[in-house]
Amino acid sequence: MTDNNGKVRPFGIKDKLGYMFGDFGNDFTFLLSAMFLLKFYTDVMGVSAALVGLMMMAARFVDAITDVTMGQIVDRSRPGKKGKFAPWLRRMCGPVALASFLMYATWFKDMPMGFKIFWMFFTYLLWGSICYTGINIPYGSMASAISDNPTDRTSLSNWRTIGATLAQTAIGVVLPLVVYYTDEAGNSVLSGQKMMLGALVCSIGAVICYMLCYKMTTERVKVGQNTQKFSFGELIKELAHNRSLIGIIVCALVFLLAQLSLSNMNAYIYPNYFGNIKAMSIASLSGTIVILLLSTFITKLASKIGKKELSVIGCIISAASFITLFIIHTHNVWIWIALIIIATIGTSMFNMVIWAMITDVIDESEVQNGVRQDGTIYSVYSFARKLGQACSSGLAGVLLSIVGYTTATAFDPKVIDGIYNVTCLMPAAGMTLLLLALIFLYPLNKKRVEANAAKLKEIRATREQQ
């Protein structure tokens, strides 16, 4: 945390890289679940898509308790030598990695259906509602403690997205080439054994990335222990009057509906509709390149025109791309990928600044209420993201069942056309709803964010003089 003179090391590239590794670790398990868990349980374990989707949605009711509980634990924990948030990365990296691996236990595929359903529920709740919550909430809250400068925080958000993009490259580009095989009929089929080994590699990678984040980041903003008595009723009352938090919650929910529904459906549209697994990897790699290119100037662009303002532009671009794909109903995978790349530009304009937007919400809450609640506010926001994840997976599972998808009908013409329509319409709806939420609900434009930062800087300077 300090240099040789005993002073705190200035914010710099080491913090950015360290924070990047944190989300790299997160998405080694999160994206793996978003992209492959539904496919694994429908095609390998033989569980119906609707039931898998129902499980993912039901788990969010548990998260409503565990997320807020973890937020309170973080807020009430005492800062240590390494800070208040970073120690949780070291404590929880092992459990979250192990829980993720256990979700893909292909050795149970011949067990009775009742046991497979039990194991699916048990491991998913253990991973998502307990272990992932235990590491993701302190990690997300840590951004506001690394720096109090809005530009630095936008930079952290940008680098966090780069970390997620690198994980997406490993999972979305490399893994499909490894875990699928071609059956006797010439169809691309998911291998349970290879999927389990892939999950093991991702779990090991997650632990390494979390420890790099722990070692490389420095918490400069001293966030004290919150000793106020907790009241769930007061929390709900406060949240109900916090327009900025309500706005970012709705934005997160509908954005995850768009983003993760596409991730879920990619596992069906490329092998089943287009019959081209390599194209799936190419599309993912193209998305990675787009995001890395945007990362070179997104911080400056957001600082110049505002994070909210930039996100509105991105929503219009992305929604228009998905609607165009639905209208033309192309069978040409390269036309599909070209428009998906354009859509990725739009979604990235929001996704690369969203983590800075939540720190803006935390600042807004402190200005309005005089109390800083990083962990609690981030936990509520995290729950909204998980709800969006569940809604996307649950809705995808239900819609797959509606269009008639089973392992027996997976390549029927009517079914694969239904897969195409679902893959277009769910992201289109999500990005359109995000646009409306940003315009009519989320109040933190560029001017207000800068005013809050100046106010808090003045308050902290006064405290230090006392």
UniProtKB/TrEMBL annotation:
The keyword Transmembrane applies. InterPro entries: MFS_2, MFS_trans_sf, Na/Gal_symport. The keyword Transmembrane applies. Signal peptide: none annotated. SUPFAM superfamilies: MFS general substrate transporter. Keywords: Membrane, Plasmid, Transmembrane, Transmembrane helix. GO terms for molecular function: symporter activity. GO terms for cellular component: plasma membrane. This is Glycoside/pentoside/hexuronide:cation symporter, GPH family. It comes from Lachnospira eligens (strain ATCC 27750 / DSM 3376 / VPI C15-48 / C15-B4). The lineage of its organism: Bacteria, Bacillati, Bacillota, Clostridia, Lachnospirales.
